[in-house]
Structure formats: structure tokens, C-alpha cells
Amino acid sequence: MELTFLGGAREVGRSGVLFSGKKRVLLDYGVKLNGDSEGKPDFPLKLRKPIDAYIMSHAHLDHSGLAPALYDGVPPMPCLATYPTQALSEMLITDYIKIAKGKVPFSRSAFKRLVQNFFPVMYERELEIGTHGGVKLTLHDAGHIPGAAISELVTEGKRIVYTGDFKMQDMLMHTGAQPVKDVDVLITESTYSDREHPDRKDLEQQFREDILRTLESGGSVLLPAFAVGRSQELAMLVYQFGLDVPIYLDGMAKGASEVILQYPKYVRDPHALSEALGAVEWVESPAQRRAALDAPSVIISTAGMLSGGPAINYLLRMNGNQHSKIIFTGYCVEGTNGWHLMRSHKINVEKEWVKIDLPIKYYDFSAHAGRSDLLKFIEAASPEKIICMHGDKCEEFAAGLAEKGYDAQAPKMGETVQI
Fold first, then answer.
1. From 17, 47, 206, 312, which residue has the greatest number of CB atoms within 10 Å?
2. C-alpha–C-alpha distance, residues 8 and 294, integer Å
3. What is the span of the domain harbouring residue 407?
């Protein structure tokens, strides 16, 4: 048995891991948006042989975006994922095709075949892959976004666990993930392997005070956010603050919220989510978008890394207003507009660099495990072998784990690891 790393190795983005044994199973197949200086996407390596099944850990494009390419001119195989992951990935990939103006490395018919081959999998329900078996799959709640899953494969007496993106601490939207025990091979994300997340309650209080100061000065607050997960989490949090100003929800977050509300079992408190989303003002027209900045307000808008979406339009209109503020709450991949803005106060708009004269703040509301929780998961899993991926410092994390006595490594792109 072996694992081949097609993407997400020593980097964040374009995740893809191929398991080869009695069955060939692909774990994720995403894209890396704004992966270079020109903003062109990066893709994982291509598959050379057919696979028996494709497992999609969750809907974010860095894990799902290239999935349609798996269905271009090859015999179809099942796409195994939870109900929300399938519905949300369909929405996000549709938008990706639109933004790319159809210039994607797969056909529309392939995308259609992907959707036709969705096979929903419930949490904690064992499934046998293939007609003759050989690999058993169980999905566990990853606590990251609605429907996100940790994948457990059992085959030939080995338990192989792929975490995808996971979070062990409770959030408003989710209950934290639980470690999988007695693991032989653990393939873990390493996004925050070198740092901890701050105390959530203290952070929420600072966040609230910052928003209140901005509103009291007559300004507005722009919260760029991922459409799936973060936008809904922020809507619930800001709603709890009891502000007397409008809270706007714009961009793909509207469509994602509608989908998420259809799957209440995948949310920690569906009533609280429904109440918060019912109280915000959903931006439905350009006129409403223009009016949102006429008076102090809080605007939650895609995209979280400013790689597109209406958030950029709001930012450009706010530019120069020292009373207003832009607040980031999530990870920005190197090279994205969000990454550049936090470092140089500049963003790239239609290949022109624009200086942004506006207060900028970052609050770490990450939906990923911090260093201590990564170590807690690893300790509970007690794996014989650890593979570190999906991070900027995978090699350092693996080296640190090796010093603790673990058999740990951080493969390169295209590298194959024997199990």
C-alpha cells in the first residue's frame, strides 16, 4: 500500500492524496487560487490511472475545486461526501467556473457527471468501497465547516486517517472534532502547526469593542469572509452583540447560508443560526449594496481573502475613510489580496496595484486546529506513521514530531510514501 501526494504537500491549497492498495481512493482534489504573482490558479498533479472512489473532505475549493476533472473522459466513480459537502461544493464550483469565465481544466459535462455521481455518506456510518470491498470508509465530524469530515480508511489490517481541515475547539456553528484512536497512518493538516489560537472569549470581547469603537466614530466595518462557514459564524457572533446598526450579508454567503439551513443536523445550534440569519439584511441588489455604506454598518461579504466578490467593491468605496475599518478573521494564502493588504496596504485590482488608506485589523477566528490541538489529536491517535501536509511549515512540524519519537515526515509534491 502507498500514498502519493498530488497536492497540498508543504503548502496550503490544491489538496490531493492518492491511496493505492486493494482499491485506489483519492482524498480531495482542490485548486490553489491566486497561487502565483499573476493570480492564476495552481492545480494538483494529474492522475495517471483510474480510481475506485473519490472522497471529498469538505466543500472549500482548495479541497474540492478540481473534482470535476476526475470525471472528464473516464469511467465514473462515486464521489463520497456528506450531504452539505455535496450541495455546497456544487455551489462553490459553479461560482469558480463563472469567475474563471469558463477557463477551467475540465468540461461542463464533467462537472455534471460529478454531480450525478455524488453518493452521500453519513457521519459514523461504515461504508465499503467497491463491489468487492477491500476498503472500509467511516467519516467523522471535523468541526471545520458544515459537513466537513475526517476520513478513516480501514484496509489490510491498517487504519489510515486523513484529517482534511479540522477544529477541536467548539465554535458557535460547530462542536469540535474528536480524535480517531488506534491509528496506523495519520495524514494531518498542519496549517497552524507553529502557533496557537488566542482564547476565544477574550478575542470575541476585543472584536466586539473594536466594532463598537468604529461604529461610534461614524464608520462602518467590513468583514471579508469565506462564503461557507465563516460568514455564518460571524453573522451569529455579531448578532449576539446586539448592535443598533444594520448587519449586511453579501456575496455567495447568501446562497451558502440557504444551503446550510437545509441541513440543520450539521450545525451545533440550528435555531440560533436561523435567528441570526433572519435578523441580518441580505444584500439583493446593487442599490442596496451602495446604500450599505451610507450610514454606520457591519458588512459581512465574500471573499475572505479578497480574491474576488463584492468585498473588494466595499473596500474601494471605504478607501480613505479613517473612521471605517476592515477586519480579517481568517487565513489568507500568500499572494492573495488579503495577504498583500495586511502587509503592504495594497491590493491588485484588474492588474493595477491600488493603495488602501484604511485601518486594518486581524482577529484569529480560525476554523483550524492550533498547535496544541494538533498535538492532542496526534497523541490520542497514537499513530505508527504521521504525514504532515496542508501547511507552510510542514517540514518543521514533522521534524518536531520526530524529536518526540514519532515516525513523521512531510512529503514533497509527487512523492510516494510506502505504508
1. 17
2. 42
3. 2-195+367-418
